[in-house]
Amino acid sequence: MPGITALGLLILIAAWAIVTGIVELMAAVRLRKIINNEWLLVLAGIVSVVFGILLLFQPAAGALVLIWWIGAWALLFGILLMILAFRMRNWKGFIAVETAGV
C-alpha cells in the first residue's frame, strides 16, 4: 500500500517539522537575554512550523513537489542555522551563566 505509506511519511515529516519549529521558538524566547541574534533562531522556527503546516494542508501534492519542498526547507533551515553558528562561534557566556547559578 504505497499510498498509505507515502501519506504516513508525509504526516511524520510534517509533525517533526512543526515540533522542531516550536522547540526552536521556545529556545529563542528563553535565550533572548543570553544570546545575540536570537532572531535567526526565531526565523528558523517559523520556517519550520510553516513548512510542517504546508505539508499537512497539501497531502495530495505530488512526490516531486514534496521532494522540492523538503529540499528547499532543508536548505533554508541549514543556512539559517549556519549563520547562527558562525555568529555564536566565539561566544562563551552560556557555560559561565549556567555554572554560576549552581
Describe the structure.
By secondary structure, the chain is mostly helical. It has helices at 2-31, 38-57, 63-87, 93-100. Helix 1 (2-31) packs antiparallel against helix 2 and helix 2 (38-57) packs antiparallel against helix 3. It is elongated and about 50 Å long. The model has no long low-confidence stretch (mean pLDDT 81).
- The tally of strands reads 0
Query: Gyration radius, to the nearest Å?
Result: 17 Å
Mean pLDDT: 81
Fraction of helical residues:
over 70%
Largest pleated sheet: none
Q: Report the principal-axis shape.
A: elongated
Strand content: under 5%
Q: Which segments are poorly predicted (pLDDT under 50) over 5 or more consecutive residues?
A: none
Describe this protein with a few key phrases:
single chain; 102 residues; mainly alpha
Concise overview:
This protein is mainly alpha-helical and 102 residues long.
